[in-house]
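Side project, low priority. Logging it here so it doesn't get lost.
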Amino acid sequence: MGTVFSFDVRGGDPGAIQAALREAVAGLHRVDEVFSTYRDDSEVSRLARGELTVQECDPMVAEVLDLGAEAERASDGWFSMRYEGRLDPTGIVKGWSAERAALRLAEAGATGVSVNGGGDVQLLGVPAPERPWRVGVSDPLRPGGLAAVVSASGVPELAVATSGTAERGTHIVDPRTGRSAVTDLLAVTVVAPRLTWADCWATAAFAMGSREALEWLEALPDVEALLITAGDEVRCTGGLAARLG
């Protein structure tokens, strides 16, 4: 998937956790094999060329396409699984696969799980008694600095996903023009229970621009967000303060 995944796993039977970790890592490699748009032999590339049907692909493909279609409907088309006219579900795959890996480890008995996929994080449980997971949000205008710290205190699961131009440059597409999204935003960080949706909503919100994005994010259930504009203006949803610390 062109990025680095890292795991922080606490508690559970060591043997069971090691086995689950091997499965989770193998699963991420399998996701890359199936969904990579950079590999001509991947199932998604072959599906886009009409060489396979969805029914002939790994069942993961149908699952992701259904989730992506739901994200497109919920965002009124601002999230899209198409790039330059071709099928491209990469905007949902990374978050979905990291969430999936975290859940596998929790099912194996881990009491605390953090899976970080390229800076987007799925958190489950706690790292230690009376100690919540905390995630630093990079400041796009001050390299090495933090714009905020998100805490998972009091909740059993939390995801943090950021979309923006600071790390990867201009790469987010405006689905309505097919060209790079040109907005007043530098970064959008979304906090939600599951990373599949946090990742999708951050991408869609960035393409919208700050004014429309903030209004839309406020209306989503169990979602909070931090938006940073090119003018160094910070905007956030009404409930975000409860998740900072």
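Brief comment: The chain has a mean pLDDT of 93.
Revisit when time allows.
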